[in-house]
Write a structure and sequence with these properties.
Elements lengths: L11 E5 L3 H13 L3 E5 L5 H7 L4 E5 L7 H10 L6 E5 L4 H9 L4 E4 L4 H16 L5 E4 L2 E4 L4 E4 L2 E2 L4 H11 L6 E2 H8 L7 H15 L6 E4 L3 E4 L7
Parallel strand pairs: 1-2, 1-3, 3-4, 4-5
Antiparallel strand pairs: 6-7, 7-8, 8-9, 10-12, 11-12
Helix pairs in contact: 2-3, 6-8
The protein binds calcium ion.
Length: 234
């Protein structure tokens, strides 16, 4: 590894791969380049791990025991994480790649692949990430920082609980799209049980905070909610 003048914290990678031999060779190759790597064979805990640990990059196998890589990625994006994700797919199926990219993957590799090519893709992805440190979503007067999990309204910090934040992030990724209460429950429940009533409470709290600034969450009767696009009414 080349010595650098500027000391940067190492790039932390979460590798999700159930083939032990492949996981080991990829881990070693990444570590030899100075990356910090945590490897797991299961998809279920990934969304939670990303909430707890500051990972810079996700390498995700699609064929996993239990929930597959697509479902993992869906959950990761639903909780508002914008961590760069590279998916590994065993099949050279166009639909798989398209599906992965639709779900928010940043890049993909088809197995079998050459390690140097994987390393090159990882370098490109982490460069992109460094150029985009503040993964912010701006919606009129509202700004959400998906890395720090904070929110601002009219440039003032907005006091929201973790659950309210997650609901807001979910809606912000779907402006002008109707989402059901059940979709919100699925996206934010994690380990605990969560009822439709709880979702109503979070929505009502968010409304009381956002309405005065002109950020409107509309109720779609008998179905769910929709975050309205910002109009120039203000
Ligand atoms: Ca696999």
């Amino acid at each position: 590894m080349a010595a650098t003048a500027v000391s940067r914290p190492p790039v932390r990678i979460l590798l999700v791969e159930d083939d032990p031999a492949l996981a080991q060779s990829v881990s070693r190759a990444l570590q030899s380049q100075g990356y910090e790597v945590d490897a797991t064979a299961k998809g279920e805990p990934v969304a939670y791990s990303l909430q707890r640990g500051p990972y810079d990059l996700l390498i995700l196998d699609i064929g996993l025991p239990g929930i597959d890589g697509f479902e993992v990625l869906r959950r990761v994006r639903n909780q508002g994480s914008s961590v760069p994700a590279l998916i590994l797919t065993a099949r050279d199926a166009v639909e798989d790649r398209v599906h992965g990219l639709d779900l928010g993957a940043d890049d993909y590799m088809t197995k079998p692949f050459a390690l140097p090519e994987l390393l090159a893709r990882i370098r490109a992805l982490s460069r992109r990430k460094q150029g985009n440190v503040e993964a912010k979503i701006v919606h009129g007067p509202l700004t959400l920082d998906t890395v720090a999990r904070r929110a601002w309204l009219d440039d003032k910090p907005l006091d929201v609980s973790g659950r309210e934040w997650a609901v807001l992030a979910f809606l912000l990724n779907r402006v002008e799209k109707v989402v059901s209460k059940d979709q919100i429950v699925q996206a934010i429940a994690g380990w605990e049980e969560l009822s439709d009533n709880a979702v109503e409470v979070y929505i009502s709290r968010l409304r009381s905070k956002l309405d005065p600034a002109g950020v409107k969450i509309r109720t779609v009767r008998g179905f769910g909610y929709m975050l309205e696009d910002i109009t120039d009414a203000r």
